[in-house]
Amino acid sequence: MATAVFLTNCFFNHSLINKPFSHRLPAIQTKIFPLKASKMEGSEITEEKNDEILEEKKKVFVAGATGNTGKRIVNQLLAKGFAVKAGVRDIDKAKTIFTGNNPHLQFVKADVTEGSDKLADAIGENLDAVICATGFRPSWNLLSPWQVDNFGTVSLVEACRKCKVNRFILVSSILVNGAAMGQLLNPAYIFLNVVGLTLIAKLQAEQYIRKSGINYTIVRPGGLKNDPPSGNVVMEPEDTLYEGSISRDQVAEVAVEALLYPESHYKVVEIVARADAPQRSFQELFGAIKQR
Ligand SMILES: NC(=O)c1ccc[n+]([C@@H]2O[C@H](COP(=O)([O-])OP(=O)(O)OC[C@H]3O[C@@H](n4cnc5c(N)ncnc54)[C@H](OP(=O)(O)O)[C@@H]3O)[C@@H](O)[C@H]2O)c1
């Protein structure tokens, strides 16, 4: 499994640079309601009247929250003031990854191969958006990429419809449409399709999303790195990039920022990081991509 991950990363060209990563944290819209303080005079229990306030946060469901990108998405959402429902296969594992009992983080069991009804139960009510950061885990099951990266993502979109969630962010991959881009002989395209038709599975799911009517942003990153960000994000329209790499921190940032800017709506964006790229705001980056 480690070999497969290593090879996957090697097939994407790495562009390493030393520019700082933008830590801009845009404020999200929150409604502030005064919490009524209760005071029981004349009884044994006396509560001090206080001016506590309760913030109503926007709530996002993250599928694949224990993954390398998924956990970064969860952490960035929390840091930016969202409440998070983390969809995970193993809640005990999730508790070892997210320590500290954040009251705005909730874990719920969600296996995307178990169908849209179960996923709808997991998503529940009053969610504002779903971010999908799942990816098959290498195993002897050759159908796994198709079950997770195609059918699993489709089920998640169906679950969104059942739960009346109309915002969906997908972490996909560059080269999913490699055949149409003339990249049939690109080693990354060949390798990732030899492993269970992974890129074709992802492309099928993307096509379903785009026809579904849901307000989507499909984020297609280049090769993923766990290293801290280096270089600035380059964002291009679909079927443009066929090499390059990017830190998972930046991928998570793009997925979360997509929730903040309407310029990202109904768009497919491809991203890598490059040393020579100018630093641009996410609004500018998303805004420069034409809707198709
Ligand atoms: N590796 C690359 O260079 C590269 C490049 C471009 C795009 N991508 C894509 O980017 C996405 C994120 O990649 P990553 O490397 O950060 O992911 P990752 O670390 O491999 O994590 C995958 C996540 O998917 C979850 N998952 C697997 N099967 C599932 C199922 N049946 N139901 C629910 N969740 C399931 C895993 O859960 P568990 O934690 O329970 O296993 C894990 O949370 C993936 O779609 C990947 O294909 C990868």
Automatic annotation (TrEMBL):
Annotated TM spans: none
Record-annotated NAD(P)-binding domain positions: 64-260
Stored Pfam families: NAD_binding_10
Name of the molecule in the record: Reductase
Organism: Lithospermum erythrorhizon (Purple gromwell)
